[in-house]
């Protein structure tokens, strides 16, 4: 059981400036929750901000009442003058609570790196930008027994970009400026766990990094390079939904918003004294650097990456029924009658009443996503495996259980989705948060 309060806090993100954050417990990133697979975790959230919020556990196998549907508002504990609870619920009827709400997470899922963030209808992007996001780590017995790096060598890294005004406050563009950001809002300061371009001192040993792209819209092509140009490698051990069956060595990790990569980096490959930079090859200028590691000492290292990781991992096979997609979702920009641009799925902007798919609980379906643009497609509840990218096989970074997949311009991605957990209404949406707020979301009902 945890209690957490959404409130304003002050942080020194840029040297000598104070930034007001809207944070869980007033901090950004919010507190990291450590939970256990199959053990019910209850998080009681109090909203001491002045705006409604919605908390979603991204990657969680969560009953619909606690999943953070965008209209299931948690209204501020204190009413603003002249307002009643009823007007504040506004035009979005849902399971509205006032002041407090208990979110229940039964977690019938393996060890995984999850995260939580705001999901308020039409306002997720600015509210996450102001700080409403954090890690939620699920562990289990199978993971406990693996000799992976742990303790202070198991490090969650939340990557996101922000812009700042002169006075140090977060600068999120006003609505009329949004046309300048058709790809979503990008910042010009790279943050890792809320700090700009940090330096981390490391031993010449293995580290486990749980990489999360918590940016509104920025994509990363991560690489490691030492000062002498020597490249480093990532050994991927887990994806969005948990550990892989076997590790996979990668020289680059491409990450779209919402995705997680659990990787091990062995700094003993570099001499003590080396400076190793984590670079984003998908960015320009100063944003090409993400953070730096200084290898400062030797250290005894008993950890290793075993050749078999999760024995419970199961590769879904399409079978005869899955050889053709049963449902197609086309993510596309269209223009409304007034020439306003809209982000749509199958030509439809989001409506709370419309349901695009009704898969059965316990079934596996082949879904096809297509797109005119970069859209990180995310499903709540249901985990999926990438089967094909058009006529090509999945990419090296597509392995494991996913809940978010980057669909690139004019690409067609087929996935096998497993509907396990609960019946009820869930979301499929673009995790570019500006696209999401501009209605690129759909309902599916697990029946
Ligand atoms: Cu991470 Cu529906 O969101
Ligand atoms: Cu989610
Ligand atoms: Cu999108």
Automatic annotation (TrEMBL):
Q: Which Gene3D superfamilies match?
A: Cupredoxins - blue copper proteins
Q: What is its EC number?
A: 1.16.3.4
Is Zinc one of the keywords?
no
Q: Give the record's keywords alphabetically.
A: Metal-binding, Oxidoreductase
Pfam families documented for this protein: Cu-oxidase_2, Cu-oxidase_3
Q: Does the keyword Metal-binding apply?
A: yes
Q: Which residues form the Plastocyanin-like domain?
A: 8-70, 101-142, 331-446
Catalysed reactions, as listed in the record: 4 Cu(+) + O2 + 4 H(+) = 4 Cu(2+) + 2 H2O
Q: Name one GO molecular function term.
A: oxidoreductase activity
**Protein family per UniProt:** Belongs to the multicopper oxidase family.
Query: Self-association or partners: how does it assemble?
Result: Monomer.
| PANTHER family recorded | BILIRUBIN OXIDASE (PTHR48267:SF1), CUPREDOXIN SUPERFAMILY PROTEIN (PTHR48267)
Instruction: Return the protein name.
Output: Multicopper oxidase CueO
Q: What is the lineage of its organism?
A: Bacteria, Bacillati, Actinomycetota, Actinomycetes, Streptosporangiales
């Amino acid at each position: 059981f945890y209690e957490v309060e959404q409130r304003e806090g002050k942080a020194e993100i840029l040297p000598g400036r104070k930034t007001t954050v809207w944070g869980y417990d007033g901090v950004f990133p919010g507190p990291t929750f450590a939970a256990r697979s199959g053990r019910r975790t209850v998080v009681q959230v109090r909203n001491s901000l002045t705006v409604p919020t919605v908390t979603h556990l991204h990657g969680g196998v969560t009953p619909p009442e606690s999943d953070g549907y965008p209209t299931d508002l948690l209204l501020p504990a204190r009413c603003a003058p002249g307002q009643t609870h009823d007007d504040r619920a506004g035009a979005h009827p849902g399971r509205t609570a006032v002041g407090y709400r208990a979110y229940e997470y039964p977690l019938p899922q393996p060890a995984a790196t999850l995260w939580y963030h705001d999901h308020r209808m039409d306002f997720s992007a600015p509210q996450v930008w102001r700080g409403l996001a954090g890690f939620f780590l699920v562990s289990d017995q199978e993971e406990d027994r693996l000799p992976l790096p742990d303790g202070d060598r198991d490090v969650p890294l939340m990557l996101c970009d922000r812009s700042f005004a002169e006075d140090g406050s977060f600068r999120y563009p006003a609505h009329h400026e949004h046309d300048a950001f058709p790809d979503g809002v990008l910042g010009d300061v790279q943050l890792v766990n809320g700090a700009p371009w940090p330096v981390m001192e490391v031993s010449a040993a293995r580290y486990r990094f749980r990489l999360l792209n918590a940016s509104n819209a920025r994509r990363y092509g991560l690489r490691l390079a030492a000062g002498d140009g020597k490249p480093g490698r990532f050994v991927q051990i887990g994806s969005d939904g948990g550990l892989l069956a076997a590790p996979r060595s990668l020289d680059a990790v491409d990450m779209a918003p919402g995705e997680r990569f659990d990787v091990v980096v062995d700094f003993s490959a570099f001499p003590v004294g080396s400076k190793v930079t984590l670079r984003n090859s998908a960015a320009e200028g100063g944003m090409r650097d993400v953070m730096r590691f200084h290898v400062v000492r030797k250290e005894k290292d008993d950890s290793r990456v075993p050749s078999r990781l999760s024995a419970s991992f199961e590769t879904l096979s399409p079978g005869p029924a899955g050889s053709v997609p049963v449902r197609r979702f086309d993510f596309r920009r269209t223009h409304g009658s007034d020439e306003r641009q809209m982000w749509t799925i199958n030509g439809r902007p989001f409506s709370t009443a419309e349901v695009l798919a009704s898969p059965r609980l316990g079934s596996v379906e082949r879904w096809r996503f297509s797109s005119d643009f970069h859209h990180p497609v995310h499903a709540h509840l249901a985990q999926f495996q990438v089967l094909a990218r058009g006529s090509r096989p999945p990419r090296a970074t597509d392995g494991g259980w996913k809940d978010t997949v980057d669909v690139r311009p004019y690409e067609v991605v087929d996935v096998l989705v497993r509907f396990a957990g609960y019946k009820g209404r869930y979301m499929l949406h673009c995790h570019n948060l500006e696209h999401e707020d501009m209605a690129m979301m759909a309902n599916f009902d697990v029946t």
